[in-house]
């Protein structure tokens, strides 16, 4: 999977662009005017939605993206265009229609719960003039396009004529076309490479009530055969997805936590497109798309995920919760990058932690209270021997790391072999570097890298050395 991190396919996204507007707040009372909650709005945000969320996902994966669509010649259209350009998206095929309203969906979120949504949009098909302009722009892009993704939200951009023409042009140029469909009549998607409806959509489009694997297969192969597709896919929510080409295959998924399924279909489409555009086969693409969808449903609102997050998720599926907190320096570097992109405040400390005791636990709990994420560097066995003598450590490095990783206060643990953690601290670049109170008045290694150094007093009488002495005395 790591091979895809260095690839940059050229992807053309065609479909209904929109702005997802969020009002974030909290509610503590019911309105005296009507039986509805009163939302105290704390903040608001705008992100690309609809086909724009497909664009967002592709950018997060590292693709080179061109977008083709029609929007309104209005303020929302101007904002949407600016948002696309700020991401580095090519907008040469973006058409503004004077009488069209750019879609804007406003959602009110209170305490992680969506309370209401209100929309402003035009749902009529785009004009023939707009169709012609989009087709002309796409024709110019075909020589530098690896895959075309059609993201249909039923707002009128992917009209019957435009959709059929795009598929014909792509077929003539041997370019794959992947479709996230809308509606009950899929005939306009005939000849595409792949369609990706969910189970409910597939049931409506085929007239087959999908209740088991037998009905699932009938629906999937009906889509493939009647639409003359290379393959069909039906997404199955928490059950994963099913592929239909020369055979029927299911790919299960496991989402650890589900906060919001908004945009999961966009993530599936964009990930499939990226992998297929760069030479991956459909089975590999499905497995990766499953993992990507599992990542985004663990986030609130239309979300994206990076290759780092997909790789991290795949890794945790094969490890216990404790094991996946123990990171190599390379994996830790990727994790740090993700945490910083999320605005997390990172705390770092280090030590031998030879025999874990109450003093250690209290020290680590205090360190964690200084930020959002606590990363602990643990001296390797060789490092401990150089620092403490040949009789140490009592416990081997992996045992010490595992016990630390099992603590609620600790988020990640990594083992370092140097005498000091300086090189490791250069990788972490912590907001706060924590050391014991015995460093008062002394130079702290890494203080030139961390934004702040804090000293935490140890619990009196609690140390590994004193424990070892007591054990020897009792023999």
UniProtKB/TrEMBL annotation:
Q: Name one GO cellular component term.
A: cytosol
GO biological process assignments: ADP-L-glycero-beta-D-manno-heptose biosynthetic process
Question: Which residues are ATP-binding?
Answer: 198-201
**Start and end residues of each Cytidyltransferase-like domain:** 348-440
> Which pathway features in its UniProt record?
Nucleotide-sugar biosynthesis; ADP-L-glycero-beta-D-manno-heptose biosynthesis; ADP-L-glycero-beta-D-manno-heptose from D-glycero-beta-D-manno-heptose 7-phosphate: step 3/4; Nucleotide-sugar biosynthesis; ADP-L-glycero-beta-D-manno-heptose biosynthesis; ADP-L-glycero-beta-D-manno-heptose from D-glycero-beta-D-manno-heptose 7-phosphate: step 1/4
Subunit structure comment from the entry: Homodimer.
Which HAMAP family does UniProt cross-reference here?
HldE
> What family is it from?
In the N-terminal section; belongs to the carbohydrate kinase PfkB family. In the C-terminal section; belongs to the cytidylyltransferase family.
Q: What does this protein do?
A: Catalyzes the ADP transfer from ATP to D-glycero-beta-D-manno-heptose 1-phosphate, yielding ADP-D-glycero-beta-D-manno-heptose.
Q: What is this protein called?
A: Bifunctional protein HldE
Protein species of origin: Hydrogenimonas thermophila
Traced from the root, the source organism's taxonomic lineage reads:
Bacteria, Pseudomonadati, Campylobacterota, Epsilonproteobacteria, Campylobacterales
